[in-house]
Design a protein that fits this description.
2 copies of one chain form a homodimer. By secondary structure, chain A is of the alpha+beta class. Chain A has helices at 22-30, 53-70, 97-110; strands at 36-39, 43-49, 75-79, 82-87. A 4-stranded antiparallel sheet of chain A has the order 1-2-4-3. The interface between A and B is medium-sized, with 15 and 15 residues.
Chain lengths: 114, 114
């Protein structure tokens, strides 16, 4: 049995590698929570909901620290009661397994399981 | 001589008040730094630039704390080396003097003068 996606390492994409296609990422996407979707076969997008601005800001900090630790940085949209995330691997212009690993770790933080 | 815009109080808009028109807000906008513009006579938008993700995250926290303290919450878009801000007074569906005061305080934080 393979380890949970969130426990996989976050690794940079090989230089010149192709982004994942839908057939290749479908299994990873199945492992993510309902916040996530793949948009235009190009990036992952999520919206996480919170009770207020302060909770959304706290979550922004937690995933910001994760991004710094793994050196894999999403775009984060913080507003009242909501944090939006967009993420892809800029080096390869699309999705890499590591994007899904990062997404799974954000789910874990959101669920309070980290 | 009036005090700097950033030293004005942030106050909720009066119920039923009309949003500021361009003739009314022009003077406030003149007091803001180059990051800011008014979009569609409806909201303020800024892009602040930073050296990396960590600095952008730190700024996000500073303006997030300001937003909580004044109970006036912008939308914040955090990405590598950049923080975007969108702000208006939701109660009146447009711009209020307080939006400009908040913007001036963010400029002050960005300039390290807070």
């Amino acid at each position: 049995m393979s380890p949970p996606l969130a426990d996989e390492p976050v690794e940079p994409a090989d230089e010149g590698a192709d982004p994942l296609t839908d057939g290749e990422y479908a299994e990873y996407l199945d492992d993510l929570g309902p916040a996530w979707e793949v948009v235009e076969d190009h990036h992952l997008e999520a919206t996480y909901e919170f009770d207020d601005f302060a909770e959304a800001l706290a979550f922004t900090n937690e995933i910001g620290e994760l991004a710094e630790a793994e050196w894999h940085h999403p775009d984060i949209h913080l507003s009242w009661g909501e944090v939006g995330v967009e993420m892809w691997s800029h080096d390869i212009g699309g999705l890499h397994e590591s994007d899904f690993v990062m997404a799974a770790r954000m789910d874990r933080i959101y669920d309070g399981d980290d």
